[in-house]
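Quick illustration, no need to memorize.
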Amino acid sequence: MSKPSPQDIVRAVLDLYGTTFCRELAIAVEEGNNPSLFQLLCVSSLFTDRIDWVTTLGTARLLKKRGIIDTPQRLAASSYDELSQIFREAGYVLYNFDELMSRRLLKMAAGVFDRYNGDLNDLRRRAGNVPDKERNLMNEFEGMGDASVGFFCREIQGVWEEFYPFIDHKAMDAARELGLPDDSAELASLCSRRDFPRFASGLVRVGLKWDYERIFDKARQLQTAGV
C-alpha cells in the first residue's frame, strides 16, 4: 500500500482528535466575549511544559465546573485557600505547585483589571490587532510563558483572525512526526479555514498521546476507501 497522502493524514487527525480544548471544556470562545476570553486565558496559563497535560486538563475542568474562572470578577473574589484546595484535588501536590498556581491566577485576574479594565478585548484593541504585540502583552501576565501564550493563540485563531494560521511548537512537533509540512501556511492549505483550529488542537492531542501509528492506520483506511 502506498504512503497515505498529507490530505489523508489531516483527515485522520480531524476524525480521531479534531476537538479544540475550548470545546472540550465548554468554553464558548467563538462568541468572542470577555468571559470566554478570560476563561481561555486562565486555562492557557495552566498549560506549561512543567505539568503533565492530564493533570492540567483535570484542573481546568474543576475550575470551570466550580465557576472560579467564569469572569475576572469571580476569580478576583476567590480566596487563596479556595484555589489551593482545587489545585490539590487536581493533583498539584509536589513542590508547592498548588500555592504557585493559586498565586498566579489571582495575579492574573488583578492584571486584567489593572491593565485592561477587566476586558481582554481591550488588550486586542491596544495591540492594534497585531499578533506580535498581542503575544507580548499576554506574556506580561503572571504565569504566561511561551507555551501558555501559544495555547491561547492556537485556540483563539478562529475568532481573532489575525492569528490564522497559527501552529504552536507542540502542534508543529506532531506535524513533523506525521511527515507533514513544518510551516503553518502549508499546513493550513491542507484543510479548510474553519477546520484548521480543530486540526491544530488535534495535532497537539496526537503528540501528547504519542498516537502516530493510529493516525497512519486511519489515514491508510481513508486512502483505501477513497473517501
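The mean pLDDT is 92.
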